[in-house]
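In response to reviewer comment 3 from the previous cycle, which asked for concrete evidence that the modeling workflow produces usable outputs, we include below a single protein chain processed end to end. The sequence was submitted unchanged, and the resulting C-alpha coordinates are shown without manual editing.
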Amino acid sequence: MSVVRDLRVLMRFRDFRRLLSVRLLSQGADGVFQIALAAYVVFSPEKQTSATAIASAMSVLLLPYSLVGPFAGVLLDRWRRRQVFLYGNLVRALMASATAVLMVSDAPDWLFYVSALCVTAVNRFVLSGLSAALPRVVDDERLVIANSLSPTAGTLAATAGGGLAFVVRLLGGDSDAAVVLLGAALYLCGALASLRMAPELLGPDRELIQPRLSSALAGTARDLVAGVRHLADPARRQAAWALGAMSLMRFCYGALLVMVLMLCRYTLTSNPDDGLALLGLALGISGAGFFAAAVFTPWAAGRLGPQRWIVVCAAAAAVLEPALGLSFSTAPMLIAAFILGLTTQGAKIATDTIVQSSVEDGFLGRIFSVYDVLFNIAFVGAAAVAALMLPPDGRSATLVVTVAVLYAGVAGAMTKVRCFT
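The workflow returned the following C-alpha coordinates.
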Protein backbone atom coordinates (compact mmCIF):
# COMPACT_ATOMS: atom_id res chain seq x y z
CA MET A 1 0.00 0.00 0.00
CA SER A 2 1.24 3.53 -0.79
CA VAL A 3 0.37 4.75 2.69
CA VAL A 4 2.70 2.13 4.19
CA ARG A 5 5.46 3.15 1.76
CA ASP A 6 4.93 6.83 2.57
CA LEU A 7 5.03 6.11 6.28
CA ARG A 8 8.29 4.20 5.89
CA VAL A 9 9.80 7.18 4.09
CA LEU A 10 8.71 9.59 6.79
CA MET A 11 9.89 7.33 9.58
CA ARG A 12 13.43 7.64 8.21
CA PHE A 13 13.41 11.18 9.57
CA ARG A 14 14.48 10.75 13.19
CA ASP A 15 12.99 14.02 14.37
CA PHE A 16 9.70 13.26 12.64
CA ARG A 17 9.52 9.99 14.58
CA ARG A 18 10.09 11.82 17.83
CA LEU A 19 7.55 14.53 17.09
CA LEU A 20 5.07 11.86 16.07
CA SER A 21 5.55 10.04 19.39
CA VAL A 22 4.65 13.25 21.24
CA ARG A 23 1.54 13.63 19.08
CA LEU A 24 0.41 10.03 19.57
CA LEU A 25 0.79 10.14 23.35
CA SER A 26 -0.77 13.59 23.69
CA GLN A 27 -3.75 12.89 21.46
CA GLY A 28 -4.17 9.40 22.88
CA ALA A 29 -4.52 11.06 26.28
CA ASP A 30 -7.02 13.51 24.76
CA GLY A 31 -9.15 10.58 23.60
CA VAL A 32 -9.10 9.02 27.05
CA PHE A 33 -9.99 12.32 28.72
CA GLN A 34 -12.79 13.17 26.29
CA ILE A 35 -14.49 9.79 26.66
CA ALA A 36 -14.29 10.10 30.44
CA LEU A 37 -15.95 13.52 30.28
CA ALA A 38 -18.63 12.29 27.87
CA ALA A 39 -19.41 9.33 30.11
CA TYR A 40 -19.55 11.52 33.21
CA VAL A 41 -21.59 14.40 31.73
CA VAL A 42 -23.84 12.67 29.18
CA PHE A 43 -24.14 8.97 29.99
CA SER A 44 -24.28 8.88 33.78
CA PRO A 45 -27.49 7.01 34.67
CA GLU A 46 -28.43 9.60 37.28
CA LYS A 47 -28.25 12.46 34.76
CA GLN A 48 -31.14 13.31 32.43
CA THR A 49 -29.16 14.88 29.63
CA SER A 50 -30.73 17.21 27.06
CA ALA A 51 -29.34 18.79 23.91
CA THR A 52 -29.30 22.09 25.77
CA ALA A 53 -27.23 20.57 28.58
CA ILE A 54 -24.74 19.18 26.03
CA ALA A 55 -24.52 22.57 24.34
CA SER A 56 -23.96 24.26 27.70
CA ALA A 57 -21.15 21.85 28.57
CA MET A 58 -19.51 22.43 25.18
CA SER A 59 -19.77 26.18 25.69
CA VAL A 60 -18.12 26.01 29.10
CA LEU A 61 -15.28 23.85 27.77
CA LEU A 62 -14.75 25.34 24.31
CA LEU A 63 -15.72 29.01 24.20
CA PRO A 64 -12.78 30.13 26.35
CA TYR A 65 -10.53 28.75 23.58
CA SER A 66 -11.54 31.87 21.68
CA LEU A 67 -9.68 33.86 24.33
CA VAL A 68 -6.78 31.44 24.74
CA GLY A 69 -6.26 30.80 21.04
CA PRO A 70 -4.87 34.18 19.95
CA PHE A 71 -2.47 34.25 22.89
CA ALA A 72 -1.41 30.69 22.09
CA GLY A 73 -0.44 31.72 18.58
CA VAL A 74 1.54 34.75 19.68
CA LEU A 75 3.42 32.72 22.27
CA LEU A 76 4.04 29.81 19.91
CA ASP A 77 5.77 32.21 17.55
CA ARG A 78 8.16 33.11 20.40
CA TRP A 79 8.41 30.19 22.77
CA ARG A 80 10.42 27.12 21.87
CA ARG A 81 7.81 24.65 20.69
CA ARG A 82 9.61 21.72 22.31
CA GLN A 83 9.18 23.44 25.67
CA VAL A 84 5.47 23.94 24.96
CA PHE A 85 5.09 20.17 24.54
CA LEU A 86 7.04 19.48 27.72
CA TYR A 87 5.39 21.93 30.10
CA GLY A 88 1.98 21.80 28.44
CA ASN A 89 1.70 18.05 28.96
CA LEU A 90 2.99 18.34 32.52
CA VAL A 91 0.29 20.90 33.33
CA ARG A 92 -2.36 18.70 31.72
CA ALA A 93 -1.24 15.69 33.74
CA LEU A 94 -1.58 17.71 36.95
CA MET A 95 -4.98 19.22 36.09
CA ALA A 96 -6.38 15.88 34.84
CA SER A 97 -5.46 14.37 38.20
CA ALA A 98 -7.28 17.23 39.93
CA THR A 99 -10.33 16.61 37.71
CA ALA A 100 -10.37 12.95 38.77
CA VAL A 101 -10.39 14.00 42.42
CA LEU A 102 -13.31 16.36 41.80
CA MET A 103 -15.29 13.56 40.12
CA VAL A 104 -15.29 11.44 43.26
CA SER A 105 -15.88 14.33 45.65
CA ASP A 106 -18.89 16.52 46.37
CA ALA A 107 -17.37 19.50 44.58
CA PRO A 108 -19.75 21.80 42.69
CA ASP A 109 -20.14 21.33 38.94
CA TRP A 110 -18.59 24.70 38.13
CA LEU A 111 -15.33 23.70 39.83
CA PHE A 112 -15.27 20.44 37.84
CA TYR A 113 -15.74 22.36 34.58
CA VAL A 114 -13.00 24.84 35.49
CA SER A 115 -10.57 22.00 36.12
CA ALA A 116 -11.52 20.23 32.90
CA LEU A 117 -11.24 23.55 31.05
CA CYS A 118 -7.63 23.92 32.18
CA VAL A 119 -6.82 20.55 30.59
CA THR A 120 -8.51 21.35 27.30
CA ALA A 121 -7.26 24.97 27.18
CA VAL A 122 -3.62 23.85 27.28
CA ASN A 123 -4.50 21.49 24.45
CA ARG A 124 -4.67 24.55 22.14
CA PHE A 125 -0.99 25.24 22.68
CA VAL A 126 0.05 21.63 22.13
CA LEU A 127 -1.97 20.93 18.97
CA SER A 128 -1.13 24.26 17.37
CA GLY A 129 2.53 23.68 18.18
CA LEU A 130 2.48 20.22 16.62
CA SER A 131 1.12 21.62 13.36
CA ALA A 132 3.51 24.57 13.31
CA ALA A 133 6.52 22.34 14.07
CA LEU A 134 5.88 19.79 11.33
CA PRO A 135 7.73 21.69 8.53
CA ARG A 136 10.82 21.64 10.79
CA VAL A 137 11.13 17.84 10.75
CA VAL A 138 10.36 16.96 7.10
CA ASP A 139 11.42 18.45 3.79
CA ASP A 140 9.11 20.41 1.48
CA GLU A 141 8.71 17.48 -0.90
CA ARG A 142 7.14 15.31 1.80
CA LEU A 143 5.11 17.98 3.58
CA VAL A 144 1.80 16.95 2.01
CA ILE A 145 2.37 13.33 3.01
CA ALA A 146 3.37 14.37 6.52
CA ASN A 147 0.24 16.56 6.79
CA SER A 148 -1.80 13.56 5.74
CA LEU A 149 -0.30 10.93 7.99
CA SER A 150 0.75 12.82 11.12
CA PRO A 151 -2.56 14.49 12.11
CA THR A 152 -4.46 11.39 11.01
CA ALA A 153 -2.21 9.22 13.17
CA GLY A 154 -2.99 11.58 16.04
CA THR A 155 -6.71 11.26 15.40
CA LEU A 156 -6.39 7.47 15.33
CA ALA A 157 -4.42 7.66 18.59
CA ALA A 158 -7.28 9.67 20.10
CA THR A 159 -9.72 7.04 18.86
CA ALA A 160 -7.57 4.27 20.33
CA GLY A 161 -7.39 6.24 23.56
CA GLY A 162 -11.17 6.36 23.59
CA GLY A 163 -11.29 2.58 23.13
CA LEU A 164 -8.80 2.13 25.95
CA ALA A 165 -10.97 4.36 28.11
CA PHE A 166 -13.92 2.02 27.56
CA VAL A 167 -11.81 -0.96 28.65
CA VAL A 168 -10.51 0.78 31.77
CA ARG A 169 -14.00 1.98 32.64
CA LEU A 170 -15.33 -1.58 32.33
CA LEU A 171 -12.52 -3.07 34.42
CA GLY A 172 -12.71 -0.23 36.93
CA GLY A 173 -16.38 -0.67 37.75
CA ASP A 174 -17.57 2.21 35.50
CA SER A 175 -15.22 4.60 37.27
CA ASP A 176 -14.82 7.74 35.19
CA ALA A 177 -12.21 9.03 37.65
CA ALA A 178 -9.98 6.02 36.96
CA VAL A 179 -10.19 6.75 33.23
CA VAL A 180 -9.17 10.37 33.79
CA LEU A 181 -6.15 9.21 35.81
CA LEU A 182 -5.13 7.05 32.86
CA GLY A 183 -5.27 10.15 30.69
CA ALA A 184 -3.08 11.98 33.20
CA ALA A 185 -0.49 9.20 32.97
CA LEU A 186 -0.45 9.44 29.16
CA TYR A 187 -0.01 13.21 29.32
CA LEU A 188 3.00 12.64 31.56
CA CYS A 189 4.44 10.18 29.02
CA GLY A 190 3.94 12.79 26.28
CA ALA A 191 5.94 15.31 28.31
CA LEU A 192 8.78 12.82 28.79
CA ALA A 193 8.77 11.92 25.07
CA SER A 194 9.34 15.57 24.14
CA LEU A 195 12.67 15.50 26.01
CA ARG A 196 14.13 13.37 23.20
CA MET A 197 14.22 16.47 20.97
CA ALA A 198 16.58 19.41 21.32
CA PRO A 199 14.92 22.56 22.73
CA GLU A 200 15.69 24.65 19.60
CA LEU A 201 14.87 21.97 17.01
CA LEU A 202 11.23 22.86 16.38
CA GLY A 203 11.61 26.62 16.17
CA PRO A 204 10.71 29.35 15.91
CA ASP A 205 13.90 31.10 14.86
CA ARG A 206 15.97 32.36 17.77
CA GLU A 207 15.55 36.04 16.86
CA LEU A 208 11.77 35.71 17.34
CA ILE A 209 11.98 34.11 20.77
CA GLN A 210 11.09 36.31 23.74
CA PRO A 211 11.34 34.15 26.88
CA ARG A 212 9.79 36.75 29.20
CA LEU A 213 6.02 36.37 29.35
CA SER A 214 5.43 40.09 29.80
CA SER A 215 7.45 41.01 26.71
CA ALA A 216 5.70 38.32 24.64
CA LEU A 217 2.21 39.45 25.67
CA ALA A 218 2.96 43.16 25.28
CA GLY A 219 2.85 42.94 21.49
CA THR A 220 -0.12 40.55 21.27
CA ALA A 221 -2.58 42.90 19.62
CA ARG A 222 -0.04 44.25 17.15
CA ASP A 223 1.17 40.78 16.20
CA LEU A 224 -2.34 39.41 15.78
CA VAL A 225 -3.21 42.25 13.42
CA ALA A 226 -0.04 41.48 11.49
CA GLY A 227 -1.04 37.81 11.32
CA VAL A 228 -4.50 38.64 10.01
CA ARG A 229 -3.00 41.00 7.42
CA HIS A 230 -0.59 38.28 6.40
CA LEU A 231 -3.51 35.91 5.82
CA ALA A 232 -5.55 38.60 4.06
CA ASP A 233 -2.82 39.22 1.50
CA PRO A 234 -4.11 38.31 -2.00
CA ALA A 235 -1.23 35.86 -2.31
CA ARG A 236 -2.80 33.87 0.54
CA ARG A 237 -6.44 34.17 -0.52
CA GLN A 238 -6.62 30.42 -1.06
CA ALA A 239 -5.58 29.80 2.56
CA ALA A 240 -8.20 32.22 3.91
CA TRP A 241 -11.00 30.60 1.91
CA ALA A 242 -9.85 27.13 2.89
CA LEU A 243 -9.99 28.09 6.58
CA GLY A 244 -13.50 29.43 6.14
CA ALA A 245 -14.65 26.30 4.34
CA MET A 246 -13.14 24.03 6.97
CA SER A 247 -14.83 26.03 9.74
CA LEU A 248 -18.23 25.48 8.12
CA MET A 249 -17.52 21.78 7.77
CA ARG A 250 -16.58 21.74 11.44
CA PHE A 251 -19.92 23.39 12.21
CA CYS A 252 -21.70 20.60 10.35
CA TYR A 253 -19.71 17.94 12.17
CA GLY A 254 -20.48 19.51 15.55
CA ALA A 255 -24.22 19.67 14.91
CA LEU A 256 -24.28 16.04 13.80
CA LEU A 257 -22.24 14.97 16.83
CA VAL A 258 -24.82 16.44 19.22
CA MET A 259 -27.55 14.63 17.29
CA VAL A 260 -25.65 11.33 17.49
CA LEU A 261 -25.11 11.81 21.23
CA MET A 262 -28.85 12.25 21.76
CA LEU A 263 -29.72 9.32 19.50
CA CYS A 264 -27.29 7.04 21.34
CA ARG A 265 -28.56 8.21 24.71
CA TYR A 266 -32.32 7.96 24.14
CA THR A 267 -33.35 6.47 20.76
CA LEU A 268 -31.03 3.76 19.45
CA THR A 269 -30.40 2.01 22.78
CA SER A 270 -32.36 1.25 25.91
CA ASN A 271 -29.85 2.16 28.63
CA PRO A 272 -26.93 4.59 29.09
CA ASP A 273 -24.20 1.92 29.06
CA ASP A 274 -25.36 0.56 25.70
CA GLY A 275 -25.61 4.11 24.42
CA LEU A 276 -22.03 4.85 25.44
CA ALA A 277 -20.86 1.64 23.75
CA LEU A 278 -22.69 2.59 20.54
CA LEU A 279 -21.15 6.06 20.65
CA GLY A 280 -17.73 4.45 21.01
CA LEU A 281 -18.42 2.24 17.99
CA ALA A 282 -19.51 5.25 15.94
CA LEU A 283 -16.37 7.16 16.90
CA GLY A 284 -14.22 4.13 16.06
CA ILE A 285 -15.78 3.81 12.61
CA SER A 286 -15.32 7.55 12.10
CA GLY A 287 -11.66 6.98 13.01
CA ALA A 288 -11.49 4.40 10.23
CA GLY A 289 -12.74 7.15 7.93
CA PHE A 290 -9.87 9.35 9.11
CA PHE A 291 -7.45 6.58 8.21
CA ALA A 292 -9.03 6.20 4.78
CA ALA A 293 -8.58 9.95 4.29
CA ALA A 294 -4.87 9.56 5.04
CA VAL A 295 -4.67 6.87 2.36
CA PHE A 296 -6.60 8.67 -0.36
CA THR A 297 -5.84 12.35 0.24
CA PRO A 298 -2.18 12.42 -0.93
CA TRP A 299 -3.21 10.77 -4.20
CA ALA A 300 -6.39 12.81 -4.63
CA ALA A 301 -4.83 16.14 -3.64
CA GLY A 302 -1.89 15.39 -5.91
CA ARG A 303 -4.14 14.83 -8.92
CA LEU A 304 -6.83 17.41 -8.20
CA GLY A 305 -5.01 19.92 -6.02
CA PRO A 306 -5.84 20.49 -2.31
CA GLN A 307 -8.59 23.03 -3.06
CA ARG A 308 -10.45 20.80 -5.52
CA TRP A 309 -10.17 17.93 -3.03
CA ILE A 310 -12.00 20.09 -0.46
CA VAL A 311 -14.74 20.59 -3.05
CA VAL A 312 -15.04 16.83 -3.60
CA CYS A 313 -15.18 16.11 0.15
CA ALA A 314 -17.87 18.73 0.82
CA ALA A 315 -19.94 17.63 -2.18
CA ALA A 316 -19.78 13.97 -1.15
CA ALA A 317 -20.92 14.86 2.37
CA ALA A 318 -23.77 16.98 0.98
CA VAL A 319 -25.14 14.00 -0.94
CA LEU A 320 -24.47 11.09 1.42
CA GLU A 321 -25.25 12.71 4.78
CA PRO A 322 -29.01 13.11 4.20
CA ALA A 323 -29.22 9.84 2.25
CA LEU A 324 -27.91 7.95 5.27
CA GLY A 325 -29.00 10.18 8.14
CA LEU A 326 -32.72 10.63 7.53
CA SER A 327 -33.51 7.05 8.54
CA PHE A 328 -32.26 7.67 12.12
CA SER A 329 -31.27 4.02 12.46
CA THR A 330 -28.08 2.37 13.63
CA ALA A 331 -26.54 0.86 10.48
CA PRO A 332 -26.91 3.95 8.22
CA MET A 333 -25.65 6.12 11.07
CA LEU A 334 -22.47 4.04 11.34
CA ILE A 335 -21.92 4.22 7.57
CA ALA A 336 -22.42 7.99 7.74
CA ALA A 337 -19.84 8.15 10.55
CA PHE A 338 -17.26 6.59 8.22
CA ILE A 339 -18.15 8.89 5.31
CA LEU A 340 -18.03 12.03 7.46
CA GLY A 341 -14.76 10.92 9.02
CA LEU A 342 -13.25 10.50 5.55
CA THR A 343 -14.58 13.77 4.10
CA THR A 344 -13.90 15.90 7.18
CA GLN A 345 -10.34 14.65 7.65
CA GLY A 346 -9.66 14.76 3.93
CA ALA A 347 -10.69 18.41 3.81
CA LYS A 348 -8.64 19.16 6.93
CA ILE A 349 -5.49 17.60 5.49
CA ALA A 350 -5.93 19.70 2.36
CA THR A 351 -6.53 22.84 4.42
CA ASP A 352 -3.45 22.23 6.57
CA THR A 353 -1.37 21.83 3.44
CA ILE A 354 -2.72 25.02 1.87
CA VAL A 355 -2.05 27.01 5.04
CA GLN A 356 1.46 25.66 5.56
CA SER A 357 2.36 26.23 1.92
CA SER A 358 1.04 29.82 1.90
CA VAL A 359 2.01 31.16 5.34
CA GLU A 360 5.52 32.14 6.37
CA ASP A 361 7.04 30.18 9.28
CA GLY A 362 7.10 33.19 11.61
CA PHE A 363 3.30 33.46 11.32
CA LEU A 364 2.37 29.77 11.44
CA GLY A 365 1.71 29.68 15.18
CA ARG A 366 -0.66 32.62 14.97
CA ILE A 367 -2.48 31.32 11.91
CA PHE A 368 -2.96 27.85 13.36
CA SER A 369 -4.28 29.38 16.57
CA VAL A 370 -6.79 31.41 14.55
CA TYR A 371 -7.60 28.09 12.88
CA ASP A 372 -8.34 26.58 16.31
CA VAL A 373 -10.45 29.56 17.37
CA LEU A 374 -12.58 29.26 14.24
CA PHE A 375 -12.93 25.53 14.88
CA ASN A 376 -14.15 26.01 18.42
CA ILE A 377 -16.53 28.87 17.68
CA ALA A 378 -18.01 26.78 14.85
CA PHE A 379 -18.32 23.73 17.11
CA VAL A 380 -19.98 25.61 19.98
CA GLY A 381 -22.24 27.44 17.57
CA ALA A 382 -23.25 24.12 16.04
CA ALA A 383 -24.08 22.74 19.49
CA ALA A 384 -26.25 25.78 20.23
CA VAL A 385 -28.10 25.48 16.90
CA ALA A 386 -28.58 21.74 17.43
CA ALA A 387 -29.97 22.40 20.91
CA LEU A 388 -32.63 24.64 19.38
CA MET A 389 -33.51 22.21 16.59
CA LEU A 390 -33.30 18.78 18.24
CA PRO A 391 -36.28 17.17 19.99
CA PRO A 392 -35.63 15.13 23.17
CA ASP A 393 -35.05 11.90 21.20
CA GLY A 394 -32.54 13.51 18.82
CA ARG A 395 -34.51 12.85 15.61
CA SER A 396 -34.57 16.01 13.45
CA ALA A 397 -34.93 15.86 9.68
CA THR A 398 -34.63 19.65 9.60
CA LEU A 399 -31.13 19.49 11.12
CA VAL A 400 -30.00 16.77 8.71
CA VAL A 401 -31.21 18.73 5.67
CA THR A 402 -29.72 22.01 6.96
CA VAL A 403 -26.32 20.39 7.35
CA ALA A 404 -26.53 18.97 3.83
CA VAL A 405 -27.26 22.45 2.44
CA LEU A 406 -24.23 23.85 4.28
CA TYR A 407 -21.98 21.15 2.84
CA ALA A 408 -23.30 21.95 -0.63
CA GLY A 409 -22.65 25.65 -0.02
CA VAL A 410 -19.03 24.93 0.91
CA ALA A 411 -18.54 22.90 -2.27
CA GLY A 412 -20.07 25.62 -4.41
CA ALA A 413 -18.10 28.45 -2.80
CA MET A 414 -14.76 26.66 -3.10
CA THR A 415 -15.50 25.83 -6.74
CA LYS A 416 -16.00 29.54 -7.52
CA VAL A 417 -12.92 30.63 -5.56
CA ARG A 418 -10.84 28.22 -7.62
CA CYS A 419 -11.27 30.52 -10.57
CA PHE A 420 -9.30 33.25 -8.82
CA THR A 421 -6.38 31.18 -7.49
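The mean pLDDT is 83. We consider this sufficient to address the reviewer's concern, and the full set will be provided in the supplementary archive.
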